[in-house]
């Protein structure tokens, strides 16, 4: 039976939240000082630390076995699930129920029959991607067209975070921000080559997780594009006009980060 925890008095939870805040602040400073690789790694570590707090509140235990994830990956997965669940709470929606095929996929990933490297190379089935893109969501039909537009954009952002965490690619990226990898006479990975925009992306992910964990803020936008949409006058522009504006923003962003 899972222990009921009063987090308003739990020192562990406050210490974790404070550490997430510290790591996010450090990531910003590192990025400002030109250390994008370490900033990225620190941001993913902050996101992972948020997952530690969520694991406490949910009472989840890490799967065991040869193919089970490391503690780093497990906590990242918990943090990503929390992002996903909080987005549904923002719109007053219930989490979609897993059908038999999706349940079987998750059971297989946690069964320990495959090594971590095998799981990393294994693609996530299309059915699961569709599930995370808003299909089979109870209450979805009752949302306005504008809410559906924004929710669809936010779901894609959250889905990318979830897929990166579920497959272990977020952990690979974290390590890539810290270590130089070599193979024979070649350097195959170098933190110095980390792009500023990628570090900024993971900082934004960690900040969103912090908002939810520290303040219970579900109403803020999820992702940079949804944040941009919030600044536009209502009603929102058509998809065609919006796409043109986004392409312009991407061009400006690439010139800034080039």
Describe the structure.
It is a single chain. 64% of the residues lie in helices and 3% in strands. It is mostly helical and 258 residues long. The chain has one domain (11-257). The protein has a two-stranded antiparallel sheet with strand order 1-2. The longest helix has 23 residues, at 36-58. The radius of gyration is 19 Å and the shape is globular. Mean pLDDT is 79; it is low at 1-5.
Structure in a nutshell:
This protein is mainly alpha-helical and 258 residues long. It is built from eleven helices and two strands; from the N terminus they run ααααααααββααα.
Features:
258 residues, mainly alpha, 11 helices
Number of helices: 11
Radius of gyration (CA) equals 19 Å
N-end to C-end Cα span: 53 Å
User: Uncertain segments of ≥5 residues (pLDDT<50)?
Assistant: 1-5
What is the total number of structural domains? 1
Order of strands, widest sheet: 1-2
Largest sheet: 2 strands, antiparallel
Number of strands: 2
Q: Which structural class is indicated by helix and strand composition?
A: mainly alpha
Choose one word for the global shape: globular
Order of helices and strands: HHHHHHHHEEHHH
Q: What is the average of the pLDDT values?
A: 79
Q: What is the beta-strand fraction?
A: under 5%
Helix content: 55-70%
């Amino acid at each position: 039976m899972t222990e009921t925890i009063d987090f308003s008095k739990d020192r562990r939870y406050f210490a974790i939240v404070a550490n997430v805040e510290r790591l996010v602040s450090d990531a910003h400073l590192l990025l400002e000082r030109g250390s994008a690789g370490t900033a990225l790694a620190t941001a993913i570590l902050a996101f992972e630390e948020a997952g530690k707090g969520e694991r406490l509140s949910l009472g989840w235990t890490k799967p065991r076995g040869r193919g089970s994830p490391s503690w780093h990956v497990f906590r990242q997965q918990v943090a990503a699930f929390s992002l996903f669940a909080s987005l549904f709470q923002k719109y007053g929606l219930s989490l979609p129920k897993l059908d038999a095929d999706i349940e079987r996929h998750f059971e297989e990933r946690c069964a320990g029959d495959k090594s971590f490297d095998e799981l990393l190379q294994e693609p996530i089935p299309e059915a699961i991607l569709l599930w995370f893109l808003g299909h089979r969501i109870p209450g979805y039909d009752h949302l306005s067209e504008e809410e559906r537009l924004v929710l669809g954009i936010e779901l894609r952002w959250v889905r990318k975070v979830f897929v990166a965490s579920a497959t272990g690619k977020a952990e690979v990226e974290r390590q890539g921000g810290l270590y130089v990898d070599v193979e024979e006479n070649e350097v195959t990975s170098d933190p110095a080559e980390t792009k500023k925009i990628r570090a900024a992306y993971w900082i934004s992910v960690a900040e969103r997780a912090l908002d939810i964990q520290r303040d219970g803020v579900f109403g803020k936008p999820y992702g940079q594009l949804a944040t941009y949409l919030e600044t536009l006058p209502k009603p929102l522009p058509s998809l065609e006009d919006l796409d043109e504006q986004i392409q312009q923003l991407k061009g400006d962003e690439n010139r800034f980060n080039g």
